[in-house]
Amino acid sequence: MLTREENLRFHLVGHNEMLKNFISGHLQGFFSCSEFTVVKQPDFLLRRRYQENEIVLCVYSSLNAKDIKQMIHIRKMIRPAKVILLTQDPSFFPPAFLQTLDVDAVYSINKNICGLTETILSVLRGNKYSYAEFRVPESPLLKLTSKELEVFIFLRTGMTNKEIANVSGKAESTVKAQLKSVYKKLGINNRWAALTSPSMEVFGPN
User: Fold this and answer.
1) pLDDT band (50, 70, 90) for residue 5
2) Is the pTM of this model over 0.85?
3) CB neighbours of residue 120 within 10 Å
4) For 6, how many CA atoms within 13 A lie in the half-sphere containing its CB?
5) Which H or E run includes 92?
6) Which of 29, 46, 53, 93 is deepest in the core (most CB within 10 A)?
């Protein structure tokens, strides 16, 4: 099991260069024997094999469809490295969405930066993030199964059925069938209603 004293390699990826540099500077004060790299292009992470002592910090104020697809692809390619998502307010993300990303932890960039250190140490001790602590607000979405909620979340990011199928590893016909069930349960008739109705919001305000 990894500890603070061992040499770690941190890779910070995301949109906000200033925020990534700030986080890197803070962590260097604690993990003084570690190596830090601020990555401008996420694809740079895919150029080599990763080890258990490497941690990828994905810093996103909000997530769009492109970011989601990128993160899922990165997660699959860089095992056994640890992945921590830093975003504006993790409580707006339903469990099914976080499980799809398969990250080791999620931390709010609105919280005290010192708490991030504790989160990293927890991950290094082998603790997997508890998705159960996130709750979907009272809404029609509670009627959906986890698989239906997953495809609905992807739909809300603007993905086509084909894109949803590619990202989720499902057949396009399965995606269509699941969305048909979603529309029926939510009492809506089409994709446009799912995309535009405020009551169908799953991410919360940016």
Assistant:
1) very low
2) no
3) 23
4) 14
5) none
6) 93
